Every structure is written in C-alpha cells, then in structure tokens.
Predict the 3D structure of the following.
Amino acid sequence: MIGGDLIGIENLDREDIEAILDTAEKMREVGTRVVKKVPTLRGRTVVNLFFEASTRTRASFEIAGKRLSADVVNFSPMTSSLKKSESILDTARTLDAMDPDLVVVRHAVAGVPKRIADVLTAPVVNAGDGAHEHPTQALLDMLTVRQVKDRIDGLTVTIVGDILHSRVARSNIYGFLKMGAEVRIAAPPPMIPRNAETLGVKVFTSLREALSGADVVMALRIQNERLASSCVPSIREYSATFGIDRAKLHYAKDDVIVMHPGPVNRGVELSHELTDDPPSVILDQVRNGVAIRMAVLYLLAGRRSEPSRGELQ
Ligand code: CP
C-alpha cells in the first residue's frame, strides 16, 4: 500500500496501483448520486498548491476533496506572498504550519513537489511537475483502460507524440509496464528521449507500425510551453504524419480506444472527429480523474484501509 507522498508512478509497485484503482472504483459510485458527498474526510484539510495552469487536475482535486467532505483550500500564487519574494519552500512551510492533512502540488519545474515533500509534515501529491511525472493522470488513464477492456495485462498501448516533454507519457510508461501491458512510443526522433528503450518501451518512428495491432492509442499534446514546436519542421507536417485520425486508426485493432490527457490541440494531435466521438474516451478519463483523486486523498489523508460501506454512505 502507498504511504506518505505520491510523487511518481516510478516508486509504486503493481499492488499499489491495483489498490488505488480498486479504491477509485468504489469512489466512482459517489459521483452518480444526487447528493455527491460522503463524510470520509470530514475535518481533514486539503491544500491545492498550483503554481502552473490547470483545468482538469485542479478542478478534480477540489471536487474530489469536497465529495469526501474535506475542507479544500485553493492557494493562488498570483495573490500570495510569493509576489513579495517569499520562496516556494517558505510558502510551503508556512502552509504546513496550519496543519493541513494533505498538500497537492503542481509546478512547471521537475522536482519541486519532491522538494516540498522533503520539508513538509503533511503528505504531498504531485499534480504534475515539469516533464517529470503526473502520477494521478496515469492512474486515471489506467482506470479508464481497465474499465473499457476489463484488463491491462497483455494489452498493447501506443503513446504518440511529444514523449520527450511529457510527464504524462513518463508516468503512463511506468504504470502500464508495471501492469503488464506492452508499451510502444511513436514520435519524430527529436521528440523521443535518448534513453527511451531503457524504460522498457518499444520505440517507433513509423506511426503505421506503432499502431499495428494496438488496443489503446494515447495521443499527447504538443507542449509549446516546453518548446516542443522546435522539435518538428512545422505543426502542419507533424499533424499530417503523427496526428491521429480515422484513416490512421485502421492500422490498430477494430476495438481500439483513443485517449488524450487534455487539453487537446484540435486538429493537431487528434482530428476534430476523434476528439469528440467514439472510440475516444477522453471524457471518461476526465470523469475517472475525480474518482482517482478521491482514492488518493482517501488513502493518503484518511485511513489507509478499504473504505467501509458506512464511510461511503
Ligand atoms: N491532463 C491535465 O493535467 O490537464 P490540466 O493541465 O488541465 O490539469
């Protein structure tokens, strides 16, 4: 079972991942109720420390905390004493002195959540740090695949796009490999990390070969804020070669599903049609994001045991 902080999937084992996915399955039901609230984390305080923009992750951590009856505080860097030159670590220590039960951290620089975790008494969850890891995204992706395919073991998962700059790719590579999937990555060579094979993935520069027989296709966002566009001659050429549309999807299995962590650059990584319609499961991923974050909050800020029936009523 996980204990302490959740900084990355790299440090989890298969049993940890299965425990989180199983707990999230129980949490999912809460979101289907008219009154979407259980008392599980009543009296606990969760602080969201987002130093980088986010829609899905930030909103779903907030909704997850509120569904579990935690008090959720959203820290806003723009109106904080960071503007008066207080350091990030001093800001974190200051918030820690208010006795939160868990702190969620997103930062554009890899390693910041770990550095904060090292000085905090409260558990820290990494909500995405630079190009390092985005563990709860990978967990919600694995939950989505497990729901649709009934398994992860033995599936072929093809991740397409800007692997080099993608924390989502890194966390999913660790996660899907630990869960027994074959993981392929496909991208123009400048978007493939130099040590990619040592991670245990199969590396392709031909999208057609990478998609052949795939059960799951995960398209990644072109991360312009991390200078991804400098890795390709033009976005139009990238889209023509590595953008996923229905024609290219024919190389994959008939029951392939299409995933994207969002936000989508429509018409670049994915055609408009595949962004909105089956076999896209993008909104299922978003929905599962709340359940996964409820599970993580419960396991780290609440009791580290299965939620009893009473706790979910
Ligand atoms: N997938 C993801 O992390 O999206 P946000 O940046 O909107 O949180």
User: Anything to note?
Assistant: The chain has a mean pLDDT of 93. Residues 282-301 form the longest helix (20 residues).
